[in-house]
From TrEMBL:
Residues 47-61 have a biased composition (Low complexity). Residues 168-240 form a coiled coil. It comes from the Bacteria. The keyword Chaperone does not apply. Residues 110-181 form the Peptidoglycan hydrolase PcsB coiled-coil domain. GO terms for molecular function: metalloendopeptidase activity. InterPro entries: Cell_wall_metabolism_enzyme, Dup_hybrid_motif, M23ase_b-sheet_dom, PcsB_CC. The keyword Lyase does not apply. Keywords: Coiled coil, Signal. Residues 1-23 form the signal peptide. PANTHER family: L-ALA--D-GLU ENDOPEPTIDASE (PTHR21666:SF289), PEPTIDASE-RELATED (PTHR21666). Residues 296-392 form the M23ase beta-sheet core domain. This is Peptidase M23.
Length: 397
């Protein structure tokens, strides 16, 4: 009986000796394969991150250019206001010159009428002299019948001579004034034409500048939207790659019989800061304070001073630790059972963990900052269930 058992035992021992190395070899092979997949995945994630960073850099550049253009628009508005004042002054000058033209035209008409009246009177006297025959002043004086009549005739002749002299002098002055007023009127007309041309040129220039600025702002806004779409798509791709990487890490742990870091099976999470902080923005639909656009705020903002330690809310594995679009510096931890926590707006050089690190609840993972789309120092804290953001408050109560 013993002779029969011995060969069987020997056979089983040899079989086990052969099987164990094969199992170890298979596990090593599976781990190597997963490592290759992880390496490829990290490369894809790095490319996606670079694409997101490039888009963010371009967004920053476009926003800066748009801000400058907006400042230029404000400057242009000031120019328009100044130009409006100048146009008002030009219109006042035009009105004044027009009034002067009307006054000159009236004076010209009156002077011309006086000249015509005097010319007609002089012509009438010449016509009478012609019809009645020429009588010299001497004949008039010598035909006086008495000394008194002689004196009267001399006074009458003086009066006629003075009147003729005054008529001629007045006509001379009026004709000179007519010539002068005509010259002034032509000059004023030229001035009015120049003022109108200046006003039209000023108005056209301002309209062209305003139109150009509006077109530029519209173009920059379009570029910004396109870049934000690229950046948002890159963030989605990065998150998807992080999920795939987390799944591969889980397979690797299973293949190498490594203990899982995931312990979350429900219940309350740990508070993500070393100090209690006020909620400065809730899990609500709101207007983004930086972009001014409506959005669903995917987490809660906890106002805290720069550098305040950020703590892991639960045991888990770090699946993301880098820059992410509006979040700025960001860390994502996978806690198992589809639960992730996200920590955003971390200060520069404030990420203290790396992808693949296993963390425990309460471990310090980062420091509060204001990177990304932030108006001040705070922690943006998200809870994602199967990658979908959910209100974090019930998990912290």
């Amino acid at each position: 009986m013993k002779k029969k058992i011995l060969p069987v035992v020997l056979t089983l021992g040899m079989a086990m000796a052969l099987t164990v190395p094969n199992a170890a070899s298979y596990a090593a092979s599976a781990t190597d394969k997963i490592d290759q997949q992880l390496t490829q995945l990290k490369k894809q994630k790095a490319e996606a991150q670079q694409k997101a960073n490039n888009a963010q850099n371009q967004i920053t550049k476009v926003q800066s250019e748009k801000d400058q253009t907006t400042k230029d628009m404000n400057s242009l508005v000031n120019q328009v206001n100044e130009a409006s004042k100048k146009l008002t002054q030009l219109n006042e000058q035009i009105d004044q010159v027009s009034d002067n033209l009307e006054a000159n035209a009236k004076q010209l008409d009156e002077a011309a009428a006086r000249v015509d009246s005097r010319d007609n009177m002089l012509k009438s006297r010449v016509r009478l002299m012609y019809m009645n025959g020429f009588v010299s002043y001497m004949d008039v004086v010598l035909s006086a019948t008495s000394f008194s009549d002689f004196l009267n005739r001399i006074e009458a002749l003086k009066s006629i001579v003075n009147q003729d002299k005054e008529i001629l002098e007045s006509n001379k002055k009026d004709k000179e004034m007519v010539t002068q007023k005509k010259a002034e009127t032509e000059k004023q007309l030229d001035s009015v034409k120049a003022l109108y041309a200046e006003a039209d040129a000023l108005r056209d220039d301002l309209q062209a500048k305003e139109k150009a600025k509006e077109v530029k702002i519209a173009s920059l806004a379009k570029q910004e939207r396109e870049l934000e779409d690229i950046s948002e798509e890159s963030d989605k791709q990065i998150t998807m790659l992080a999920k795939q990487e987390a799944d591969l890490q889980a397979k690797k742990r299973a293949a190498s019989n490594t203990k899982s870091p995931f312990t979350y099976a429900g219940g309350k999470l740990g508070y993500p800061l070393t100090v209690q902080a006020p909620i400065t923005s809730d899990f609500v639909f709101r207007i983004n304070p930086v972009t001014g656009k409506p959005e669903n705020h995917k987490g809660i903002d906890l106002g805290a001073p720069k550098g305040t330690p950020i703590l892991a809310a639960e045991n888990g594995s770090v699946i993301y630790a880098s820059w992410m679009n509006g979040y700025g510096n960001c860390v994502i931890i996978d806690h198992g059972n589809g639960l992730w926590t996200l920590y955003g707006h971390i200060m520069n050089d404030g990420i203290y963990v790396k992808v693949g690190d296993v963390v425990k609840r309460g471990d310090k993972i980062a420091g509060v900052g204001s990177t990304g789309q932030a108006t001040g120092n705070h922690l943006h804290f998200e809870v994602r269930k199967n990658e979908v953001p959910t209100d974090p408050k019930p998990f912290l109560r």
